[in-house]
Amino acid sequence: MTDLYRLLPEEMEQLVMDMGYQRYRADQILYPLYYKFPKDISEIKQLPKAMREELAAAGYTIGSTQEIHRVVSEDGETMKLLLNLDDDTSVETVLMQYPSTNPLGHPRSTICVSTQIGCAMGCVFCATGQMGFETNLKAEHIVSQVIHFAEILQQRGQHVTNLVFMGMGEPMANYDEMIRAVRILTHPRGFGIGQRHITISTIGITSGIDRLAEEDLQIGLAISLHAPNNNLRKQLVPTAGPNSVEEIIEAGRRYFKKTGRRVTFEYALMEGVNDSIETAMELARLLKGNGSHLNIIPINPTAGNFKRPSSGRVLKFEQILIDAGINCTVRVEKGTEISAACGQLRTDIVG
Ligand code: SAH
Ligand code: SF4
Questions:
Q1: Looking at 17, 37, 61, which one is the last position of a domain?
Q2: Among 3, 176, 183, 304, which residue has the fewest nearby CB atoms (within 10 Å)?
Q3: Are residues 188 and 46 in the same domain?
Q4: Ligand having the closest approach to the CA of 113
């Protein structure tokens, strides 16, 4: 069985030609897949009936996602779905909307996709990390998460404007499937979202960062740093071993040099753990002069015992970095009350 959402447009062309059909038939499959969302090959009416039957007989399918749970935040701007993939695993995907400043404009609609079920990195403050690693998602299952929301948005006259790979899992630990999904999602004859509208977030696997830099894509990169030195970082990211803080900063610099895209460092701020004035100053020294952006994320409550610092303390931390000339923002969290915010995605506690 092969899900048609797995195929790159070039592969779709090869497939139809191998079946003895003309090349243009590929677009008669691709267009409906990404704009009409058929649930079955028999619904792609542009294709001759014989061709639809041949595709099905050859084991091609259209993978469908079943919604098993939906939670919407009070303001209606965040929606978390638990989706059953057609291989019987379920995954969480989140939509975050930000109203347009133009009253007639479309909202920014960002989909936060998962790349794995669980995660092997074991970050102590992250609900996904605490559940351990279960499985890697296939490219088609990453694509399907986006398609599911694209259909919901289309019914409202809206569309997906941004994608962040910040759901469950470590994208670089599932590199081949992750990058296949990115290529399908950004291909003008696939889903067609702009490369600059995608951000991949990694815990700092430098080999993956270097590979991504070589892809000739304009993808945004976020690196989850969380600590300015290796000692503290190892306490928070137990598997950080192979990549030191210095190596991660260097990899970020190489990415910027190669792609011209400014790297964002993410820093989950935890009371009494990594929020001291000295830590802020150490972080400022580390990041100074490399043109990156720092995103401070006051920690969201998870199963662990970590606490979000008071807003005064968050502002103080931020101010030290700003005074040191670091480009820095505090992330406005969305979806905390429905456990859809960063680090809260964990399938077994939904519902
Ligand atoms: N594995 C990747 C992508 C998924 S996590 C990574 O770690 O970057 C996405 C972001 O959520 C990361 O910056 C991560 O550090 C952050 N995060 C995890 N748990 C969190 C929590 N409890 N509160 C706030 N942010 C958290
Ligand atoms: Fe995995 Fe990212 Fe969570 Fe760490 S923060 S456990 S890398 S999902």
A1: 61
A2: 176
A3: no
A4: 1
Ligand nearest the Cα atom of residue 123 = 2
Spatial distance between the Cα atoms of 293 and 329, rounded to a whole number of angstroms:
8
CATH number, domain at 51?
Answer: 1.10.150.530
Give the range of the structural domain holding residue 206, as residue numbers without chain letter. 66-338
- Of residues 92, 140, 177, 318, which has the active-site annotation? 92
Among left, alpha and beta (phi > 0; psi -120 to 50; other), residue 152 is: alpha
Among 177, 176, 224, smallest CA distance to 199 is for 224
130, 224, 306, best to mutate for ligand 1 pocket (most atoms within 8 Å of CB): 224
Question: Over the chain (351 residues), what is each successive 10-residue block's mean pLDDT?
Answer: 97 98 98 97 96 98 93 92 89 93 87 97 94 96 97 96 97 98 98 98 98 97 98 96 94 96 96 97 95 93 85 96 96 73 61 37
238: tokens are 């137990």
For position 223, what pLDDT does the model report?
A: 98
Closest C-alpha residue for ligand 1 atom 17: 343
Tell me whether residue 350 is in a domain.
Answer: no
Give the Å distance between the CA of 130 and the centre of ligand 2. Answer: 9
Is the CB of residue 298 below 6 angstroms from any atom belonging to ligand 2?
Answer: no
Centroid of ligand 2 to alpha carbon of 348 (angstroms): 16
pTM > 0.90: yes
Residues 102 and 20 in one domain: no
β-pairing, 108-112 with 162-165?
Answer: parallel
